Amino acid sequence: MKPLTELRPELKALNTAALLYALLGILMALSYIDVSHSGTSGYMVTPHDIAHAYYGPGMSDATLIGLAHIHLLALLPIFWIIGFIFVHSRISTKWRIFWCVLPFVMFPIDVAGWFLTHHIEGFVYQTIIGGFLFILSLVVMIFVSLYEMWVVPFKRNRQKKASAG
């Protein structure tokens, strides 16, 4: 695949649709966390609210294993699609590697935090940090990719027209 700035319109449209769909999924996941983990602490989900969802008898090991299994397998193609589009950006190779690999590292750390928090409430911070970083990596990759597909070519065309006129 060519660099994102040089894609044909149909590939830009397909990639954009996939990235926006993934972004919608991320927003729905964050909304679900807010709705399902909110306690009595007010408008924001607190670490205590998240820990309460996993800690103690509220959720069985079998349920956690099932959730982990579903999430690990379902997120693989999402991470790969977003990462595949993103690696065609023009940022440095080191940053492309960093952002593409980060969700594959941080999501298992997040999931491990589910199991650890189930037994020791203090591990909720592992879940929060892992979750925050894997979501951050996806959002960065989505926005950089969209920027390079649409804004960079627009700016180039504008500059060409300005210098030609």
Walkthrough of the structure:
With 165 residues, this protein is mostly helical. It has one domain. The chain is built from 5 helices and no strands. Helix 1 runs antiparallel to helix 3, helix 1 runs antiparallel to helix 5 and helix 3 runs antiparallel to helix 4.
Helical/strand content category: mainly alpha
Specify Rg, calculated over alpha carbons.
19 Å
**Roughly how much helix do the residues carry, as a percent range?**
over 70%
Q: Kindly state the number of beta strands.
A: 0
How many domains make up the 3D coordinates? 1
Order of helices and strands: HHHHH
What is the element layout, followed by pairings?
Elements lengths: L8 H29 L9 H8 L6 H26 L6 H27 L4 H41 L1
Helix pairs in contact: 1-3, 1-5, 3-4, 3-5, 4-5
Keywords:
elongated; 5 helices; 165 residues; mainly alpha; single chain
Brief write-up:
This protein is mainly α. Helices cover 79% and strands 0% of the residues.
